[in-house]
């Protein structure tokens, strides 16, 4: 059985790591390269950066951050946020990212997923799906969780797999930053319809939430930000409770 992965997420705005609740009320947490290096040395299986400002000027800042990160860490890392073109994907991979995350641009131009997967391989392409519960199911949200596309999230997950995405980063907009646990129904609904790995994201507030999502769904990885950035729990403590609950987890 493939070991489950624990992934810290660093939301980056204007060159600094920030964290909010329900995608808003951002507060500054620290330097992204320093934080990534710390996590790499202390048990993270992978690291994800999300550039949430993603202006043209911000893109240059992120490229430099990626280069510095690649020189300092020894675990795979994904960079997403504001990726709109094949050239954006190319720049991030050339700078040292192992994978590139695509979100809003994929919804607007789904051929970007296929083009990127054909050129660089599915293993490099992560499609981020931000989903919010509505009366008729979960809708795909874009623009930092603010815009309702009306697209059914489960159907969209199936589509991105068909287009060549190698992985899905699934974030519950409802649970993001709330710290009451991962969105189990949403995660189950997506995983039941795709074969590619799914990273559960949004809502982790206790270390017990990690074994919960692994035991109740087939998520291949779980992601958190606040509990790691604020020092509430270490990655080692999270891995320990996963092992105690019988989850196949990589050693810290």
Summarize the structure.
The chain is of the alpha/beta class.
Polypeptide structure, described:
The chain has 252 residues and is α/β, with parallel strands linked by helices. The protein has one domain (5-245): TIM Barrel. It is 37% helix and 28% strand. The chain has ten helices and twelve strands. The chain has an eight-stranded parallel barrel with strand order 1-4-5-6-7-10-11-12, surrounded by eight helices. Strand 5, helix 3 and strand 6 (99-102) form a beta-alpha-beta unit. Helix 1 packs parallel to helix 2. The chain starts with a strand and ends in an 8-residue tail after the last helix. 45% of the residues are buried. The mean pLDDT is 92.
Structural topology:
Blueprint: E1 5-13, E2 16-21, E3 24-30, H1 32-41, E4 47-51, H2 56-72, E5 77-80, H3 86-95, E6 99-102, H4 104-108, H5 111-120, E7 125-134, E8 137-142, E9 147-152, H6 153-163, E10 167-172, H7 184-191, E11 198-201, H8 209-216, E12 221-224, H9 226-229, H10 235-244
Helix pairs in contact: 1-2
């Amino acid at each position: 059985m493939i070991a489950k992965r624990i992934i810290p997420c660093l939301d980056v705005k204007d060159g600094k790591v920030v964290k909010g609740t329900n995608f808003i009320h951002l507060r500054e947490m620290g330097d992204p390269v320093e934080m990534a290096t710390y996590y790499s040395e202390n048990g993270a299986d992978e690291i994800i950066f999300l550039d949430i400002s993603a202006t043209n000027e911000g893109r240059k800042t992120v490229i430099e951050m990626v280069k510095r990160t690649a020189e300092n860490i020894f675990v795979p890392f994904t960079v997403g946020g504001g990726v709109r073109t094949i050239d954006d994907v190319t720049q991030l991979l050339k700078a040292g990212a192992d994978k590139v995350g695509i979100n809003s641009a994929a919804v607007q131009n789904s051929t970007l997923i296929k083009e990127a997967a054909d050129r660089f391989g599915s293993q490099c392409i992560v499609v981020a799906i931000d989903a919010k519960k509505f009366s008729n199911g979960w809708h795909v949200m874009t623009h930092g969780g603010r815009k309702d596309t009306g697209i059914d999230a489960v159907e969209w997950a199936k589509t991105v797999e068909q287009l060549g995405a190698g992985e899905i980063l699934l974030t519950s907009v409802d649970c993001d930053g709330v710290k009451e646990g991962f969105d189990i129904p949403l995660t189950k609904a997506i995983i039941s319809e795709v074969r590619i790995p799914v990273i559960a994201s949004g809502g982790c507030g206790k270390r017990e939430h990690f074994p919960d999502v692994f035991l109740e769904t087939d998520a291949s990885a779980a992601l958190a930000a606040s509990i790691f950035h604020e020092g509430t729990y270490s990655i080692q403590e999270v891995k320990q409770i996963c092992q105690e609950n019988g989850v196949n987890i990589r050693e810290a």
